[in-house]
Amino acid sequence: xxxxxxxxxxxxxxxxxxxxxLMVLIPYAIAFYVFIIRRSLQISHDHFSKLYGLRPGxxxxxxxxxxxxxxQWRNFRSNLPILTVVFTLFAVLANTVLHEETAFRFYFxxxxxxxxxLIVFTKDIRSRYLVILRMxxxxxxxxxxxxxxxxxxxxxxxxxxxxxxxxxxxxxxQERNISENYTFAxxxxxxxxxxxxxxxxxxxxxxxxxxLEVPQNNYLRRDVLWYGLRxxxxxxxxxxxxxxxxxxxxxxxxxxxxxxxxxxFIVGYGVLNFMWLKFFLIWRYFRLWxxxxxxxxxxxxxxxxxxxxxxxCLFFIPExxxxxxxxxxxxxxxxxxxxxxxLRAFAGSITxxxxxxxxxxxYVIGPSGVNWLMSxxxxxxxxxxxxxxxxxxxxxxxxxxxxxxxKQRKQ
Length: 411
Prior knowledge:
By secondary structure, the chain is mainly alpha-helical. The protein has helices at residues 2-47, 71-78, 80-96, 100-122, 127-147, 153-159, 161-164, 170-175, 184-191, 205-213, 221-244, 247-253, 261-292, 309-315, 317-328, 334-365, 370-377, 382-410, and strands at residues 54-56, 65-67.
């Protein structure tokens, strides 16, 4: 009884502390984004005449400009109408096919012609890299099929919350015994499957062949509909962003060299948001197409060149060290838990700050601009910006802790 009282008191204290922390974090986050938006509008308005890649837009007025300086986004955006026509025809035909043998013939034939059609109209030959990844996946799955599976189905079902609900998770589909499907025709069907041919996401051969027999049931129709509506909202957000903020045009034009350290940070932060949203829209468009056709590809957007890849690995070390220490040392006192949480937030903010700088190198200034960047940020004007970056990412890390805690309480 005494322990229960202590536990209740502890939970009340944690909830009180969490609410107090949110009352500080949320106003800071709002103020940060208000400042970023105002400053972004100002620098875009002041320098738009010197930027490359701006074209007449369709939002607000005929005189508005749209940032289409990114070649990949410009290509995808301009071909979206024809992609959607092919998308619709393929999905309608795919969902009218019910029998397995007929379904295979349909996917084999229509995927081949659709893939060739899309390549001709989008002029996208980069899909060859994705085909190579699929070839590797087929080889691995075929090899392990000959070795015999060591997958414990019963133990997995007991641990997996998706399988417990009566659905088939991606891992179950991937580990199914489908030795009779390792044929040359199925192999070609897998390589040229139209919805995932141009830009992925990648799905393993076993999971693909399994879902040709038994369509995915993780996403109900309303889930797929909601997924599509979220994609449309994200597309409108991207259009709004490229019409009023010209982040990528600054990077392409090299105009960042004329900006102050604060404005370089804002442009770099904006470019990273643009890049993330671009990949989000492209990958989820094709994943939505695949879901409508009954094939679930794994979601790979919650994560994602060579000059800064090793730096990226190195920058995760502080967060990994603190997290490992926190896992091995379970603090019991309120102060101990507070200290561990603050150390994790501190390490997370260091990681994000370093990744921000690395991504500035990757997407904005290039490897040749590293010395210039460091000289700018280590000046009297640049040091406060560096400190503000660190504080902002510290607040962002703390907010992510709050979101994570809320999800755990909900579960």
